[in-house]
Amino acid sequence: MAKRAQTGKRHTAHQQRSCIACRARRDKAKLFRLVRDSAQAVHFDSTGRIDGRGAYVCSLACMETAQKTRRLERALRVPITHEDYSRITAAVSREYAASIQRIEESL
Ligand SMILES: [Zn+2]
Fold it and tell me: How far is the centre of ligand 1, averaged over its atoms, from the C-alpha of 62 (Å)?
């Protein structure tokens, strides 16, 4: 008697998400998560754990595209002001710079 193969089990640690600008699918941990909190404010979520509706971008260039094309607003279903975008983009830039530095230090 052959045992029934286990199917459909996936590791949740490597969930794939799509960038809202270029649609590239990546490991969730490698994307920048933007989240709309319960007060309808949008933040960059460096921990990936803030509760709320989330959207992902893969790079600073895609963050700009998401702003220009309003894809971020559509994805999060909330209006986003220029001030919000400046704040979010600055936070993503800082995280991006920090991640580059971590890679260089590990080389
Ligand atoms: Zn992208």
Answer: 5
CB atoms within 10 A of CB 45: 20
For 41-73, the pLDDT digits (tens) are: 999 999 988 999 999 999 999 999 999 999 999
Q: How far apart are CA 103 and CA 4, in angstroms?
A: 43
| Neighbour-count burial of 35, counting CB atoms closer than 10 A to its CB (0-12 exposed, 13-18 middle, 19+ buried) | buried
Instruction: Please name the CATH architecture into which domain 17-106 falls.
Output: 2-Layer Sandwich (3.30)
What crossing angle do the helices spanning 82-106 and 60-68 adopt, rounded to 10°? 160
Interval between CA 32 and ligand 1 midpoint (Å): 10
Q: What is the pLDDT of residues 18-49, one digit of tens each?
A: 999 999 999 998 999 999 999 999 999 999 88
How many angstroms separate the alpha carbon of residue 63 from the centre of ligand 1?
Answer: 8
